[in-house]
Each structure stands twice: as C-alpha cells, then as structure tokens.
Amino acid sequence: xxxxxxxxxxEEEYNKPQPPFGNKSGYDSRTGIYHxxxxxxxxxxxxxxxxxxxxxxxxxxxxQAGLAEARIAFIDSSTNRSVSYAxxxxxxxxxxxxxxxxxxxxxxxVVLVLSPNSILYSAICLAVLSVGAVLTTANPxxxxxxxxxxxxxxxxxxAISAPEELHKLIPTGVPTILTSRSSDGKMLSVxxxxxxxxxxxxxxxxxxxxxxxxxxxxxxSGTTGVSKGVVLTHANLISIxxxxxxxxxxxxxxxxxxxxxxxxxxxxxxxxxxxGLLCVGVTTILMQKFDLPAMLDAIQKxxxxxxxxxxxxxxxxxxxxxxxxxxxxxxxxVGSGAAPLSKEVAQDFxxxxxxxxxxxxxxxxxxxxxxxxxxxxxxxxxxxxxCGRLLPTFCAKVVDTETGKPLPPNKEGxxxxxxxxxxxxxxGNLEATTATLDSEGWxxxxxxxxxxxxxxVYIVERIKELxxxxxxxxxxxxxxxxxxxxxxxxxxxxxxxxxxxTGQIPMAYVVRAAGSKxxxxxxxxxxxxxxxxxxxxxxVSFIDTIPKSAAGxxxxxxxxxxxxxxxxxxx
Length: 571
Description:
Rossmann fold; 30% helix
C-alpha cells in the first residue's frame, strides 16, 4: 500500500506477541483472556494509515486497468444486468462528486439509504463514505413510523430511496433522491447523477477523514431491547474488511461466484457484499430478496459456488432437497450466520448435500458482524455445536454472570469480545454504551456461552431478551409498548417461542380490560398495523396477571415455561 504507514497503539495491542497460553484453547490463565489462535500475515496485517477511509481502502483493492474492465463485480439475478469493477469505480467517483459538488453533502452529514439489494447499493454506500459523510441504512420493509424514528435519531440530512419506498420518507420532510429514475421524471436519481460529468478522479473532493471518524450508524436492538444506532468508525469497517479479505484468501479465489440475498442494509450483507468481497475481486449475483425457486435458478444459471445464508434458508434447502430439480453441483460452500443453526439441521444438510461445505459463524452488529469463523469444513463437522474459533485480532472473555470473574475453558458465562472491529458506542445513548462497553473496550454480548479446550466457541442461549425471527432481531419491549397502547389491553408481555421454520416467533401474553372480549386475531392485527412484518406477534394468550419480580421486571422465564406447558397440553 502506498503512503507512510502509521501504527496506532490500539492496533499494536492486537498484533504484538502474546504471553504464553494454552496452545489449543488460546486461554491465558493469568489474565482470563482467550486469544485468537490465528495471526494475520503481512498481506492482511493491521493497522493501516490513520487517514485512510473505508471507500479509499475498498477502491485500492480493485483489480487494475484491463482486469477491472473484464472482471464483473455484480450481476442482477432478475434482469441479468451486470457492472464491472471499472464501471463500479466510475460510478463511485461520479456519485461522490455529485453528492459533494451538486448536493453539498459534507463531512459528518448523515445520509440514509432505503432500498432493497441492487447493483447500485455498493456504489451509493461507498460514494457517501468517500466524501466523509456518515451512512445509515434502513430496512425497506419497515413502516413509515419506523423509518421516521431512524431519520430523527440518526439526524439524516439526505435520503436515497428506491422509488417504491419513497412514500415512507415523504412525511419526514428529509430531502430525498431516488435510486433509479422515476416514471414521471420529476425527481433526481442516482442513475442520472452517475451518468453526469463528474466521473474523473480529479473531480473528487479531498475531504480529510480519519479512521477514528464515524463511518456508519447501523440500527440494532442491542442488549436492552430498545432500538439503538450502532456507531461504527472507518477503522472498524477497514478492520472487518481485512478479516473478510483474509478469510476469502484462505477459502476462496477470484474465480468464485457468490450469491447475495442477505439484505445489504444489515451488517451481514453490507460488510460482506457491499464492501468486503470487493476487496477480493469476486463476482456477486444479487437478489432483491430471498426466494427459494429464484435462488435455486440463480445457483444453476450462474454456477454459484459460495452461498452466505441464514438458518431458515438452510432449513428450506433440507426440507425441499428431494424436490429440487436444479443442478446445484457448483455449490461448494454454504455459510450460516445471524442466528443459531441447530446441529440436527446441519447434519441433515451435510447428508443431503455431501459435496458442499457448511460453516457456521457468529458476530454482532456491534462487532461489525464478525467474531468467530470456521477455517475448515473438517473443523465444522467435528464441532457441529460450535460457531467456530475466534477470528484474527479478536480476544474473548467468558465472564461469570454472578461474580464478574473470567472463566477457564468449558465453563459457561457471558461472552465478551475485544477487537479493532468493536463499535465506538451507541448513538446519543451513553447509558446503553456504558452498559455494553466496559472502560477497557470489552464488548459485553449478552450471550451465554463457553470456549472449549480447543478454542471453539459455543453459544448456549441468549441472556438478552431479543427474539430472533428469520435472522432479524425483534425487541419484546417495542412490541409491549405497541400492545399497551391498545385501550382494551391492561398489561402485556412478549416472549420468544421456538419455531422450526423461522427460529423463533413473538408470542404475546395479554391482560384484557375488565369485560373486554378482545380476541387473539384482533390483537395480532392491531400490532401488525404498526410494525414491520417480521416483528408481528404470531400468537396470543390471555392471562389474568403478568408475572413480575419485586422490582417490577417481567419474569419472562415463567411465561416461556407456561407457553411450553400450553403447547404440550394441546398436543
């Protein structure tokens, strides 16, 4: 990399030689810290120049000259439209110049992107970051009120929206441009800006951006169940991209073809497809959203060999394996993340697709989506309950939830992580930040787990109260707030109920007002009208009182036990 390398003391902490610890577990009994057993080589080492921003880092890894013209970055699976690395670079330059010179987007301005996956998504995000602006991405299936909350909380100065989602932004009053041309031609679009005359590097603004500057605000329910903006710096994003670059070099090649239906507004999709894989030079087939028949067709048509997925997709492949008529012989590797993958489903998948590797990983929005990784299929098969070993640059603690003391291998406690990828904090929420990040920078995950004598990480259960539905996080507190706004509901509590298809579904326990005849369907419809589809309450049970502790906290475990008893009784 050109330019003078500047080494930060923070980066040195992760690369310096560590004191002696268990060769297999990475555990140092003197400090109670588990260290990654893998160190980055010189090619992928940290740190980088302190004034290097995310967009420039990604662009610096693009194929050069003729190779960039020939190598395809993205293909739209529905239209077959493609964009080469050279065209993508040109689009980023053009849009960045237009944002800066034409729309006067400045360093620190927050730009909200509301769109499904598209071949423009990466160009939009990287153009925003290249002018020093801050990116915040929104789920296109969120309601207008949820979008409005994100606009207000993030302080968005500009929005970039898919035409079909524009109606959700109009009530906010935030200036908006479209991703593609509108039918009436009345609104400015990204497509038009890219086709403008700003496409040369000399037109690019030279905005000084430090790695410590905020790059993105991604929304996660965090550890307390209240929606919060996770503040990620350029250093965070560059660190996770180097890890993705390293992992791809370990297990993939430039000739590999990836399929992306994971939404790019989510940290998993944004970091993986929007940024990380561009550093490797591979081709990604983009789908707007997951659809099983369309996914199978795309794998066959484009000879896809890498499929980053979530457990419900892997379950769908298992359940429909006998009916699949497409040729999936090109598929070499399937990854699983965003939610736990059961050992049974993993075993069924390996039996039905024996030529395909299956590797599970673990991460959080607060860690840029990364934490653990399986370097080989052999390890994944040998440890089916684990989610891999610590990624390079990661350290971990397993902390006793009662005493706060670090625990040795095979002892269960709360998982804590430390890495250059760990977030700066929660936007405008010091209380939540201090409850999640300690004074030394350790991220308290809220997940109960352990690390075995070979350094493999296991997640036992979630300490935090989030419900995992189809890979999305659903906060019970948010649904309870909606329920309590109903005039005929006196009290309410929401719990997770295990579901084979989607992982978990939200179930509500409701205390009706005296004399009320409120029905289960009425409650379900009431909530559905105010939240995104994945957050909907799927089951309702009426109860006389919600069990609570002396401090007034809902005793969810009691309700979970009750729901299991009710289910068994019905069977």
